[in-house]
């Protein structure tokens, strides 16, 4: 079994990118509403009264385009996370089955899923930092960002101004979120696969 097989890479990236593109407006609202607490602590007025109000306000200020603000780094992040999760799980699982006494059971699945969660966090955190900054930046009346021109511009400015390590701000909580998700997902997947009599990918 080739490490990081092409099918796993392409499949993981495509599924993550397509899914996140359609979910981007809801992610935008989530990110902006998470910043409301910080605004309150800084003595700034709150922008939203709730989820519905957030959607309406973003739509009225930026139009349909405004709802997809930051979709590029959002899609990039999802593609990297899915690629890392899928390819790492598949590769580690097959490696363990071929090179260790472990068999195809929950122990093997747990080890592989822990590794996949770590790799997904390593690959996804920089894109998550860029995505969050782009989604939270102030915008002009046309919905264009005032701080960053693109995800690449945000990446370059962040590294120049704060150093490379700044791209991994929030890595620990990201990993703490991804690790249990990956564990539950893959263990559930394997059990459903076994019950349905479907062969592993």
Describe this structure in words.
The protein has seven helices and no strands. It has 201 residues and is mainly α. α4 runs antiparallel to α5. It is elongated and about 60 Å long. The relative contact order is 0.13. The mean pLDDT is 88. One of its GO terms (cellular component) is mitochondrial inner membrane. InterPro entries: MCP_dom_sf, MCP_transmembrane, Mito_Metabolite_Transporter.
Q: Quick one: overall form?
A: elongated
Number of domains: 1
Query: Which value, in Å, is the CA radius of gyration?
Result: 20 Å
Number of E-state strands:
0
Proper CATH architecture: Alpha/alpha barrel
By CATH, the superfamily comes out as: Mitochondrial carrier domain
Query: Fraction of residues in helices?
Result: over 70%
Secondary-structure element string: HHHHHHH
Average pLDDT, rounded to a whole number, is 88
What do we call the CATH topology?
Mitochondrial carrier fold
Largest sheet: none
Structural class, by secondary structure, is mainly alpha
CATH class (first level) name: Mainly Alpha
Percent strand equals under 5%
In the predicted model, the low-confidence regions spanning at least 5 consecutive residues are none
How many angstroms does the end-to-end distance come to?
11 Å
Can you count the helices? 7
């Amino acid at each position: 079994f080739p490490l990081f097989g092409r099918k796993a890479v392409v499949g993981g990236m495509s599924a993550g990118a397509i899914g996140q593109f359609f979910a981007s407006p809801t992610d935008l609202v989530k990110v902006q509403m998470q910043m409301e607490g910080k605004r309150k602590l800084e003595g700034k007025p709150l922008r939203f009264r709730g989820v519905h109000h957030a959607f309406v306000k973003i739509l009225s200020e930026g139009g349909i385009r405004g709802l997809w603000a930051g979709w590029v780094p959002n899609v990039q992040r999802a593609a990297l996370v899915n690629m890392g999760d899928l390819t790492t799980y598949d590769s580690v699982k097959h490696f363990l089955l071929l090179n260790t006494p472990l068999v195809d059971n929950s122990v093997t699945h747990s080890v592989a899923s822990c590794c996949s969660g770590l790799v997904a966090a390593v690959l996804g955190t920089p894109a998550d930092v860029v995505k969050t900054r782009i989604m939270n930046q102030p915008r002009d009346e046309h919905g264009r960002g005032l701080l960053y021109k693109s995800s690449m511009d945000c990446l370059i400015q962040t590294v120049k101004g704060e150093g490379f390590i700044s791209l991994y701000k929030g890595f620990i909580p990201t990993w703490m979120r991804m690790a249990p998700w990956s564990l539950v997902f893959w263990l559930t997947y394997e059990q459903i696969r076994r019950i349905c009599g479907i062969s592993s990918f």
